[in-house]
Amino acid sequence: MSEKLFDSYSDPIPNLRYDIQRIPIQDNGRSFIYFYDQLGYSTPDFALPTDAEPILSLMDGTRSVNDIIKFSSDEVTKEHILSYARFLDENGLLDSEYFSEHAELIESEYEKSKTHRSVTAGNSYPADPEELTEFLNAAFQNHAHSDLVDTAKALYTPHIDPRFGMASYVKSFTVIKNLKPKRVFILATSHYSGLYNNEYSNKPFIISNKDFDLPNGLVKADKKTISLIKEQTSHDEIFGTSFSDRAHRIEHSIELPLLFLNHIWQHDFEIIPILVGNFDQLYYAKDGFLAHQIEAFTYLLNQQFNDADTFFLISGDLAHFGKKFGDKKSASELFDKVKAFDEAFLEVGANNDSKTMLKIMSSEYDPYRICGFPPLYAFLNAFPNLDGKILSRDLWDETERESAVSFGSILFN
Description:
alpha/beta; Protocatechuate 4,5-dioxygenase, Chain B; three-stranded antiparallel sheet; 12 helices
């Protein structure tokens, strides 16, 4: 890297990054500030003692070391403050030139790589292949199964942490165990594309050509199909596609359901991994540019990939509600309203009624933050004649944070 760590007594120290969450934690009776970087640029599991807060508050992008020394005790020197600033910079906490180059290096290396490595292994499930097999086998033995089918076109499934949604995963994936498609389109919620400023402006469909490296095996991308889509769509913004896949780097919405496909299917299949960005514009501009992009891209899917060898996996959860997500009321106070909303959403999804789904979502501008709306709505527009059957609806009640996430599944024939 050509940029160096911050090194000046007179220049303002770069401010702390605004996109990092500071979470108070306790460890062995001591208080710390835990820094959570959802983009994964900073040092993992980084924390500072709570008594660091005063000096952190002074690093607002306007004050230099020479300025901050005026607020310090006699024991603190300018060298101490500069050393501390460089320490924060080195760990990716300052919005500095060093950080900008460091972040871009991480992104460009990912884009150049041929493989997406799991970001959930070792946290949501065992990273060791043998332990993972035991973990999943036990889950499929201990939870209720759905009846098997011989044919199906698509499955709408959660991407909730398996530790909290295993019963729904088992109900979802047992039903398609006997299917043997050669190609799987994955339409999944993009949680992070909005963090990339203008990278994905007017580009809601973010396609990667990477193989997915999971603990239970490598799943290859269908590079031939991806190249075909790129050739047909890259020349015109009306399709809304992007093949700059940095939004996939820290995303979990594809790899979690893919883990289950890789477990239940023993045959070879290839994937087309597509993240679907925010559809909020539809709530106030139902005939705007985004609506036309959805129409164009989903028409292409219908016309070219509506065959017996192709399966669609739609990855999305339902409501995110409670105080963690900005609601004034606790999740438990909203359970009845959310259940009614979820059931209405799943019903119109199973009925393949995209117009009513948009009407429901638009009525209060997505009041419960249904993250599965964009990928499912896109799929319904692509294949409007399919019949669906609701398989599950469940809830992760995060009681200690007065919050919850609901999720469900639908099978389409």
